[in-house]
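Quick one, tokens below:
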């Protein structure tokens, strides 16, 4: 069985003794349900678009372990991220669209509530391994709800692959004996899973692979254990090897769950943080497919999305539901019985009914706010469904058959169902434009969003905020 009868008996005894769980007296039936809450493993590859998974119709790479994961669960045809890494990380962790809380590249608002907070408050042990890129210092993962971490790019940016520099639970660790960064962080995750096998646990794995620099992996014939890895060899021929190694590590995590008898009690989600690097051209469904990282076009946001929960989620299902990263936090909350923070508006839709094989309506549209450096007034905004995309500038596209968006549709020519689809997207977009206006005002009051230079390199936003606070304190004293 996927859970321990001994553990459940112990929990039922607790209830019969009149004790409380998370502040609420539970009935035996409710406690049994709590004991069966799934573990969560959320894996997000770095710069690996939809076309990189062979189950999606890609033929350039072989991804047998991800394909197997898809066969054991649900493969989504319309999963969308943000166009680049930090915006995606902020959105997936907080469950909020970037128009509401994105500040700048490489930074997560210290006031943000993440899925780490939400699941930890529900009694989950929480761990993050892989790539951070959100600033905040050595204490940041704990501040954002994670009990443990093993990360690259937390306070520094050394080699990430051969002979890497990592930060592990507050300690800087440098490896010089041929170790491989992705192996080290995935080893830590496997150890975390084993130490917490009695659960429940939440493991978030924003992968290091297969992001540039493109270097040999330990499975490549020319892997060099002595390579310092600081700048990378940057040869695109290694991207294929890196995708294969990404797939291998996904299999490694699944195998660990299997070996501990946890597979049926664990929801595993695999996705990517944005499209593939722009100089990589792959093959998807028999046609060339250029990478689109950094672009709001489909090749910049269309990412693989697979959810596997054997015995609960229907196996081998292919879903055309429209999904984006704002849906992940509501899904995890409903699946685990965790409570979302009161007073916060979450616009995402929980996929829990779909994961449990129940009727699921899904969303009519999703939304994207994007500016890499967080400059308000300079952003791109659009609303879309499976077929059409409407930008705030008025540009309107049928995305199928127009990947590079070179054939704008003339609004005046629309009639019937085509016109109705446009009106629905326009209504949805107008709501978000108003949210953007209000959020921008709030962020600018805090000193964010209005830099004249690129905020990704701007050191003044936080400085201005501190100076303002000092002036206010001084004024009170006077």
């Amino acid at each position: 069985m996927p859970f321990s009868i001994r553990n459940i008996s112990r929990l039922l005894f607790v209830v019969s003794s009149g004790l409380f769980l998370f502040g609420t007296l539970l009935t035996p039936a409710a406690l049994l349900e709590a004991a069966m809450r799934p573990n969560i493993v959320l894996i997000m590859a770095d710069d690996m678009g939809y076309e990189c998974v062979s189950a999606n119709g890609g033929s350039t790479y072989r991804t047998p372990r991800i394909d197997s994961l898809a066969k054991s669960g649900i493969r989504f045809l319309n999963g969308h991220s943000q166009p680049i890494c930090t915006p995606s990380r902020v959105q997936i962790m907080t469950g909020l669209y970037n128009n509401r809380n994105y500040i700048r590249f490489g930074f997560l608002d210290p006031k943000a509530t993440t899925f780490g907070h939400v699941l930890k408050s529900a009694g989950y042990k929480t761990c993050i391994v892989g790539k951070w890129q959100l600033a905040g210092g050595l204490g940041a993962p704990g501040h954002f709800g994670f009990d443990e971490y093993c990360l690259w790019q937390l306070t520094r940016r050394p080699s990430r692959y051969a002979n890497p520099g990592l930060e592990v639970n507050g300690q800087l660790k440098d490896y010089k004996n041929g170790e491989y960064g992705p192996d080290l962080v995935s080893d830590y995750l496997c150890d975390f899973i084993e130490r917490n096998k009695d659960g429940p646990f939440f493991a978030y794995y924003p992968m290091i692979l297969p992001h540039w620099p493109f270097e040999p992996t330990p499975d490549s014939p020319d892997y060099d254990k002595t390579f310092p890895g600081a700048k990378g060899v940057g040869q695109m021929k290694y991207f294929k090897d890196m995708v294969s190694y990404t797939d291998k590590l996904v299999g490694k995590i699944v195998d660990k769950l299997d070996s501990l008898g946890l597979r049926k009690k664990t929801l595993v989600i695999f996705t990517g943080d944005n499209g593939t690097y722009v100089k990589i051209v792959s093959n998807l469904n028999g046609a060339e497919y250029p990478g689109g990282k950094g672009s709001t076009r489909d090749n910049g946001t269309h990412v693989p999305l697979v959810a596997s929960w054997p015995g609960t989620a229907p196996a081998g299902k292919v879903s055309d539901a429209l999904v984006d990263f704002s849906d992940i936090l509501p899904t995890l909350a409903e699946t685990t019985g965790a409570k979302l923070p009161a007073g916060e508006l979450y616009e995402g839709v929980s996929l829990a009914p779909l994961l449990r094989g129940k009727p699921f309506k899904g969303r009519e549209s999703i939304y994207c706010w994007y500016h890499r450096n967080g400059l308000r007034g300079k952003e791109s905004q659009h609303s879309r469904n499976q077929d059409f995309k409407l930008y705030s500038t008025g540009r309107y596209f049928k995305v199928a058959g127009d990947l590079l968006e070179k054939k704008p549709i003339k609004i005046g020519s629309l009639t019937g169902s085509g016109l109705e689809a446009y009106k629905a997207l326009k209504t949805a977009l107008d709501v978000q434009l108003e949210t953007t206006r209000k959020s921008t005002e709030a962020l600018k009051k805090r000193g964010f969003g209005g830099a004249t230079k690129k905020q990704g390199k701007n050191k003044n936003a936080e400085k201005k905020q501190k100076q303002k606070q000092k002036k206010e304190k001084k004024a009170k004293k006077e």
